[in-house]
Automatic annotation (TrEMBL):
Keywords: Glycoprotein, Hydrolase, Membrane, Signal, Transmembrane, Transmembrane helix, Zinc. This is Purple acid phosphatase. Homodimer. Belongs to the metallophosphoesterase superfamily. Purple acid phosphatase family. Residues 229-455 form the Calcineurin-like phosphoesterase domain. It comes from Salix koriyanagi.
């Protein structure tokens, strides 16, 4: 038997004693539903480092480097004493949780291991303590409840998540009349028009959700109310190795306020691509649906596909001109979670190019009130002769304009934008070649796009020429400002000094730098689109589109200056000329994303960037 030197034995004993002395506890260890708060407490951490950290693990037996998130112990006010606590809400992932404390110092930072913002990821070499397991007890009903229209006007589809394959039902009823069981495949059939219904989801053996309510679609009403945005994502109460979107919380907060304010009027949500930004990390889909559930369980939540749900090298449609357009933004999801977690009207589908199920929910349409809404996919084949092109053509040509005088088309990547999106230029050219003629010929009223994480509204436009009417000149707006922040603002911020400045062309009627969403209200006489800022919940831009064709742009009461141009620009001067300066500048300066510094994250917080500068302030 080999004898160790005395000093090595002492080091070993000290290390073992130190590890055994550190304690960690979780309260409570049994939870009921997503959003329940756990408190993790620790004590006896010897010589604490400001980089010591708490890791979240689910499943609880995951390897040390497979944490889903972390918080630095220094976020607790008493961390220097070696003791402290952290409280945070956790999401039901249909798997248990454990929590572990690690010691980590600046000298151990590995610059090759970093997150999306190039902040170094914490090291796992020195485990100090591991908690007991925290579990979500069964019997509290399904979660992540969300609604959607079907192809039948008197139906409402109810979707949810459970932890097993057993059948669940939906109980539906009107106030004062109780609820009646319905099988999940026929949820919400034969609904009366414009009536508030109350419903529960679950089973007697597995538990029921709390009672929710929605207002059914009313085909006899001329009024349309919708809340529309793109690129929202989700937020987590901890740091992780993939960028999340804290502003999504404010977007949902203000929309929920607006939904509650309209009372028993019918409304719906439109989220046009880049939904959760999970990119292959399934627990972020769980966070997303938990975050939107307060809204999505009240009103239908409709979506179209974006690059971060789909794009991957194996995707079946990737023409030569799109080589630089379609990359790896989907993180390998290939549209599968998007297709299984949502069920939109219609039956569109395309092969994924893999053994995975076909991608669904690509293009569809429906009427509500005075508006015909069309959803399209910019990630799959849309050129002349494709099944999607044929659908769009036939759909637009068959709209009953006496019933729905306004037509709104929505897709992810924009046909028009003044941002420096050079990579997507070939796609925009194809959209202008193949889709814009369909839009103008069939008098599309409004075209809404995401992808660029800012708000921008254009004049009524056709081939870069502004018109004085939307008939033959659809109004385009980019509304990808609901949460994600990968594009720079039009002007540099103090902590983004190298971001290029993009001149505002004449056809751009308003550009906003704030996060937010849009609200659409329409009758048969007028459609109004407003842009609401997350920083104050107030309207910052508005356009009124009359059935007669007139477009009234802007309002002096918003107090805007350089961000807005009031009135419609009548121009026969192609924007290509004025836009040349933008392209040259973009090529010369390049596209630089600002990264949050490591110091912004050392206390376990999200990157605290300076509020986005708006052109109106």
């Amino acid at each position: 038997m080999m004898k160790l030197p005395l000093f090595l034995l002492l080091i070993s004993l000290v290390t073992q004693t130190s590890l055994s002395e550190v304690t960690i506890s979780v309260t409570p260890t049994t939870l009921q539903k997503s959003g329940d708060i756990v408190t993790i407490s620790w004590s006896n951490v010897d010589s604490p480092s400001k980089l010591d950290w708490l890791g979240l693990y689910s499943p609880p037996d995951s390897p040390h480097d497979h944490f889903i998130g972390y918080k630095f112990l220094s976020s607790s006010p008493s961390w220097k004493s070696g003791s402290g606590s952290i409280s945070l809400p956790i999401t039901n992932l249909r798997s248990n949780y454990s929590f572990r404390i690690f010691h980590w110092t600046e000298s151990e930072i590995n610059p090759k291991l970093h997150d999306h913002d190039h902040n170094p990821l914490p090291g796992t070499a020195h485990l100090l303590a591991e908690s007991d397991v925290a579990v979500f007890e069964p019997g509290h009903g399904p979660e992540q409840i969300h609604l959607a229209y079907t192809d039948v006007e008197d139906e409402m589809r109810v979707m949810f998540v459970v932890g097993d394959g057993e059948e669940r039902s939906v109980e539906v009823g009107r106030e004062g009349r109780g609820v009646e069981p319905r099988e999940c495949g026929t949820c919400g059939e034969d609904l009366k028009k414009g009536v508030r219904y109350y419903y529960q989801v679950g089973s007697d053996s597995k538990g029921w959700s709390t009672t929710r309510s929605f207002v059914s679609r009313n085909g006899d009403s001329d009024e349309t109310i919708a809340f529309l945005f793109g690129d929202m994502g989700t937020s987590t109460p901890y740091a992780t190795f993939i960028r999340t979107q804290d502003e999504s919380i404010a977007t949902m907060k203000w929309i929920l306020r607006d939904i509650e304010a309209i009372g028993d009027k019918h409304a719906f949500i439109s989220h046009i691509g880049d939904i959760s930004y999970a990119r292959g990390y399934s627990w972020l889909w769980d966070h997303f649906f938990t975050q939107v559930e307060p809204v999505a369980s009240k009103v239908p939540y409709h979506v179209c596909i974006g690059n971060h749900e789909y794009d991957w090298p194996l995707q079946p449609w990737k023409p030569d001109w799109a080589y630089a357009v379609y990359g790896t933004d989907g993180g390998g999801e290939c549209g599968v979670p998007y297709s299984l977690k949502f069920n939109m009207p219609g039956n569109s589908s395309e092969s994924t190019g893999t053994r995975a199920p076909a991608t669904r929910n690509l293009y569809y349409s429906f009427d509500t009130g005075a508006v015909h809404f069309v959803y399209i996919s910019t990630e799959t084949n849309f050129v002349s002769g494709s099944s999607q092109y044929n659908f769009i053509k036939q759909d637009l040509e068959s709209v009953n304009r006496s019933k729905t005088p306004f037509v709104v088309v929505q897709g992810h990547r924009p046909m028009y934008t003044s941002s420096n999106e050079n990579r997507d230029a070939p796609m925009r050219n194809k959209m202008l070649e193949h889709l814009e003629p369909l839009f103008t010929k069939n008098n599309v009223t409004l075209a809404l796009w995401g992808h660029v994480h800012r708000y921008e509204r254009f004049c009524p436009v056709n081939n870069f020429i502004c018109g004085s009417t939307w008939k033959g000149f659809p109004v385009h707006a980019v509304i990808g400002m609901a949460g994600q922040d990968w594009q720079p603002i039009w002007e540099p911020r103090a902590d983004h000094p190298n971001d290029p400045i993009f001149p505002q062309p004449a056809m751009s009627m308003y550009r906003g730098g704030e996060f937010g969403y849009t609200k659409l209200v329409a009758t048969k006489e007028k459609l109004t689109l407003t842009y609401v800022g997350n920083h104050d919940g107030q309207i910052h831009d508005m356009v009124e589109i009359l059935a007669s064709g007139e477009v009234l742009s802007g309002d002096d009461s918003f107090g805007v200056d350089g961000g807005a141009r009031t009135g419609v620009v009548d121009s026969t001067f192609s924007w290509y000329v004025k836009g040349a300066s933008v392209l040259v500048l973009g090529v010369f300066v390049g596209y630089i994303l600002g990264y949050a510094s490591f110091s912004m994250k050392k206390n376990g917080n999200r990157p605290s960037w300076t509020p986005v500068k708006s052109e109106e302030t």
